[in-house]
Design goal:
Blueprint (H helix, E strand, L loop, with lengths): L2 E10 L4 E11 L4 E5 L6 H8 L7 E6 L2 E2 L5 H11 E5 L10 H6 L9 H14 L15 H12 L6 E5 L7 H18 L2 E5 L3 H6 L2 E6 L2 E3 L21
Parallel strand pairs: 3-8, 3-9, 6-7, 7-8
Antiparallel strand pairs: 1-2, 1-4, 4-5, 9-10
Length: 240
Amino acid sequence: MAVSARGLVKHYEAGRVRALDGLDLDVHPGEFVAVCGPSGCGKSTLLNLIAAIDRPDAGELRVAGHSLAHLPNGRADEFRRSVIGLVFQLHNLLPELTALENVEAPLLPTERSGRRRRARARELLERVGLAERAHARPPVLSGGERQRVAIARSLANRPRVLLADEPTGALDSANGERLLDLLAELRREDGTTLLVVTHDPQVARRADRVLHMRDGRIVAPAEADPDSALRQAAPGPPVR
């Protein structure tokens, strides 16, 4: 499994808030899974645990063969660099750096050769259709361009699992569709596993599976948030 969780529990506020409540999850290598649910149901907490940004209080969690429940502190950064790519609703690009430099930045701890770092960054910008914008800085890029730079940056270290938190949330429908086309292409070419938190039916329709969360657990669609339009979003055919 690319991701496997059993009985995952996470508390906050000295145990008063249970963000995850015995969650079970399996995600296959190369699968595109959308995770939906109301605010506060534990979606972002789940991504943080899978990315080893935070640790579970109970349960087992394995990602790409790594056991994260007892991962030593010193190995979390190494795990993220070698296994995980992260994309957020807001691009979080450094405004003083060019697009090329933003994509190159994750390679600084692992690749000493500036020539090889720049070559990898240029390759990724070309893949996301921004080769001609390599020397532009984020303030002069459009919202769609900034999000594509963020995706290129997330792929710099060739991650096996790409985690995205509302990646289309700040985009219009046309740019959102282009972003999903790009993710599908990258998955098809690289076999990357995609786990995407979303409220966007457009994203859910493109996923292999849609998982619904409520009160820190994955639930059947009939138990999902009754106000969520995603209950009715049927996933499209797998993109291989």
